[in-house]
Amino acid sequence: MTIRPVTINPDSRPYSNALLLLLFFLGLFTLHAPLLGLPYFWDEAGYYIPAARDLLLSGSLIPYSTLSNAHPPLVMAWLALAWKILGFNAVVTRTAMLLIAAFALLGVFRLAQRVANTEVAIASAICTALYPVFFTQSALAHLDLAAAAFTFWGLLAYVENRRPALAIWFSLAVLAKETAILAPLALFIWEVFASRSPTKGAPEHEESRRIVPALLIPLLPLIAWYLYHYHRTGFVFGNPEFFRYNVQATLHPLRILLAFGMRLWQLVAYLNLYLLTVATALAMFREPLDDRRRISLPAQFAFLCVVLAYAFAMAAVGGAVLARYMLPAIPLVIIICISTLRRRVRIWRGVVVFIVLGFIAALFVNPPYGLSLEDNLAYRDYILLHQHTENFLEARYPMARVLTAWPGSDELTRPYLGYVTRPMQVVRVEDFTAEQLYAVSDLRRRFDVALVFSTKYEPPHPLFEGWETWQRWKTEFFGYHRDVPPAAAAQILGGRLVYEEHVKGQWVGVIEMEQVEEARFLPNAKMPGILANSGHSSVLLRPR
């Protein structure tokens, strides 16, 4: 490494960090204020909130109300602590996550300030905060942003050659999410490679020799967690279905290649990120301005190693190719691009303003290609759709057996998620494809009402819609399917559509079956083949 430690004033740095953290938090809190009371969404409802709630109620690091995915417990412990002090509700949850997001932004700011300057740091922090994926994840109870936050601080300690701090920050990162081990391992490989270049005995070689062991320390808490998880559950990497979906089913060469292309898209173009990367590419054709230095090459190569490690690894594992998995890498791309713009373009501030406006637009305007609902404010539309519909269901059919798919099944059976006031009986199907609905149509007497909804955003005229090969690859490797809209679902099931709502490419519907009049007044008792009302009151009907 050729990056030297910096001299830090121990009196001023803590104060400025505290002040900046407060400013970032207040900014995020203000921007997210209309979203703080929203019920829990998708993976929040399916795993992270139940796991954190189990920890709050029993002190168990292994969840018991849902199958364990073997994720390290740091974020769940943070939420349990917040609930213990302030009470169990969505506002507390989202505020606690915003504090982590503010800490992540402070890490981005300090890292950019260290490798570049304060101007680049301010612009990088603003761009990161308003990039749609970071913005939406800031208030959601997921693990990736916390892992990214500790990773940024680990990278800062790395470029400053602070070995104890490096080991601590990266260890906290892997205790937030196991995939955070990618950053220290990538830096370890880079250090081993870079240390072969200088002449033996050179200062850079000696610094590398001292820092390399610290990069392996984060493996220890991760191994300890997996040993503990195996001791408690008999599984190392989570329940078998989780491992199959996220590892065994993803190791096909063609799928890895396609997923790698998708990861590169998320790193350089997704949700208007191309405005930044294209502007940077064009700026590279301009001569550097005389008075502006670039980020040192060793720092750029270190960033590149981390970015590529995430791109390759997240292409090989992870059943869903979610953009949030790349959060530890995307701000590094932003820092490099902002530094390049500042170094080569005199009106770089105006360019950054234009890019920020593009990010804000992407928060509200869905793109002409598919996206995960959690990547922009489409997640708010989903929550409000389901909140309205499930309030209607509970009021009109309180005793009915409801046919639906996950995550609607969890929303109806777990009142603490914020959608219903008491559990409803649920009959669960895999999805709302025509094949699934035809398969359960013959079993219509096992349910009284069907709650159908779009499980993904579908643009009106999607790109590559006519490319049959791509459609086949999506179906085979990425679980793509087409949900049957409410009216068609009612026809297949032989029921009557009594409620329907559409918002920006998403929809939800309630279908009433013939026997529903009797079901409204049935006592709340066990039904044949249906589990009793409880936290998991559902049965999964699968076509044979």
Structure description:
The structure is a single chain. By secondary structure, this protein is of the alpha/beta class. It folds into two domains: 12-369, no CATH class; 378-540, no CATH class. Helix content is 57%, strand content 6%. It has 23 helices and six strands. A six-stranded mixed beta sheet has the order 4-5-3-1-2-6, with helices on both faces. The protein is globular, with a radius of gyration of 25 Å. The N and C termini lie far apart (60 Å). Residues 1-12, 199-203 and 521-544 have low confidence and may be disordered.
- Averaging pLDDT over every residue, what do you get? 89
Order of helices and strands: HHHHHHHHHHHHHHHHHHEHEHEHHEEHE
**Biggest sheet record:** 6 strands, mixed
Q: How would you classify the helix and strand content by structural class?
A: alpha/beta
Low-confidence stretches: 1-12, 199-203, 521-544
Calculate the terminal CA-CA distance, rounded to whole Å.
60 Å
Radius of gyration: 25 Å
Number of strands: 6
| Side-by-side strand order of the widest sheet | 4-5-3-1-2-6
